Amino acid sequence: MKIVQFCRVLSIAAVMAMVMTMAGCATRSTGQPSDIDPLESSNRAIYNFNDTIDRAILTPVAEAYRFITPQPVRTCINNIFLNLGDVWSGLNSFMQGRQEDALNTMGRVLLNTTAGLGGCLDLASTTGAKRIPNDFGVTLGVWGIGSGPYIVLPIIGSSSVRDGVGRGVDLYVGQVEFGGLIQNVNLRNSTYGLQVVERREALLDVTETVDRTALDPYSFIRDAYLQRRKAQVRGENAAAEKLPEYEDFEDAQADKAALGLTPKK
Asked: Residue 105 in contact with residue 82, Cβ under 8 Å?
């Protein structure tokens, strides 16, 4: 019964993504820079809201978590969550017809879950089997559904029309399907909270890099997100999750000084 229900969710999500993408494309002109971000005004407002919440709540909590939790423990927790995520990544690779990626990912899960003490140790990476990040938004893209306009979602952040629908399926799988395996409600909710804090802690260094180098953090993050998503749909290695780089970092810093901008602490 759950399999039938899950298949219905996938079908509905695919149809929604297709319809919403077509609607988004119908409102855009072609050949203009605004094509990638026609909703920039509202997106920036939501971005500023997210940034305020992040700096007031999530970042301090993540920094406290980093301060009180030893590095080996943080690494173990991070690896466990990544290992659980690899199960869904492998299923998405399978749905995309990328069977080699699916087999490699499931091999990672098997090795890390057994010899890696439930995923605490990422032994697969030490053998050269790199992670292949994947989700249902990428699957929709591989199926030929366009991304639609770039959007910034409250709290969640960077997305697109297609990826927003895909994110709904991802949350359903993570919260309902996988999360339902934990019967104790308090333990399940605590696990969700720990996952949020752990993910934010893992991005602290990225945030510092953006604050230190980007003239316009909004466009910097947008461009990085769109580049990475395109690479994932094409099947290129997006595991490194590289951010766009300035050709000359010193020139960028000089430009910031000229504009009266200083890195945020």
From this structure: no
**Residue 11: CA count within 13 A, CB half-sphere:** 6
Query: Cα(222)–Cα(216) distance, rounded to whole angstroms?
Result: 10
Query: How far apart are alpha carbons 122 and 78 in whole angstroms?
Result: 10
* Full DSSP string of 105-149: HHHHHHHHHHTTTTTTS-HHHHTT-------HHHHHHHTT----S
Q: How far apart are CA 151 and CA 35, in angstroms?
A: 12
What distance in Å separates the CA atoms of residue 240 and residue 224, rounded to the nearest whole number?
12
Q: In the numeric block, which tokens belong to residue 237?
A: 């290695």
Q: What is the pLDDT of residues 146-196, one digit of tens each?
A: 999 999 999 999 999 999 999 999 999 988 888 888 989 999 999 999 999
Structure tokens at 142: 């591989």
Distance CA 124, CA 118 (A): 12
Look-up of token digits 């430009």: 255
Residue 145 contacts residue 115 (beta carbons within 8 Å): no
